[in-house]
Amino acid sequence: MRILFTKNFNKMMISKKLGSHFSYDFVEVIKIVPMQVEPFDLKNKSLIFTSVNAVKSFFENGFRPDENFTSRNFNKIYTVGITTKKELRKYGFGTFKVTRHAKELSEFIIENSSKENFLHFCGNLALDVLNKTLPLQNISYRKIPVYETVLLYPKVTGTYDAVCFFSPSGVRSFAKFNSLDNIKIYSIGETTEKEIKKFTKNPIITSKESTMEDLLRLIARTE
Which residues of 52-68 are buried (b: 16+ CB within 10 A; e: fewer)? Predict the structure, then answer.
């Protein structure tokens, strides 16, 4: 089975998970460009991160949350995805709430955290799920782009049995010049799956845990 990953990964890691009876290539479909943002006082704001790149750019710009829950300026941190949570842990910070996707996070906030003031650190192409739902419930919410996602629109020349997607923007970039028909499709999560459905009626195999490890398990099982 020949697989195309629409993102670069460590070959040894993938080989260890999938074994030698799989072959695979990588193509970059998006480019991440960090933005310079002047750090400001986060006071008692609740922080939202929906991607690993947002976490990296947040700290590279010099922001520092206050995790002392006894402090008046304490920052609760909400994330989408286990990988985003793990990236925060690399910088020494924990997470108050982790959800699988933005819709689930918006529902949690509306139900449990409606009195908080939210700052969403994200990319310029971040989906408007939170932006469209939270303000309608009179919840204080502001989106702060800290990186730019550039779509590369590659033209793939090889023949593959399957393709793996990791973000809605990656799907849009790939689908501009490449067909998604007559090929097995894997998705890192439900938000990415929703974007794929705009370009094909093919069945989509989606990681419910929204992690690379779970996605590779699915690939190994559905050869």
Answer: bbbbbbbbebebebeee
Tens of pLDDT, residue by residue over 2-30, are 999 999 988 888 888 887 778 899 999 99
Length of the chain (residues): 223
Secondary structure (3-state) at 56: helix
Q: What are 106-148's pLDDT values in tens digits?
A: 999 999 999 999 999 999 998 889 999 999 999 999 999 999 9
Distance of CA 84 to the CA centre of its chain: 8
DSSP class of residue 147?
A: E
Helix (H, G, I), strand (E, B) or coil at 95: coil
DSSP one-letter string for 8-53? ---HHHHHHHH-TT-EEEE---EEEEEPP------TT-EEEE-SHH
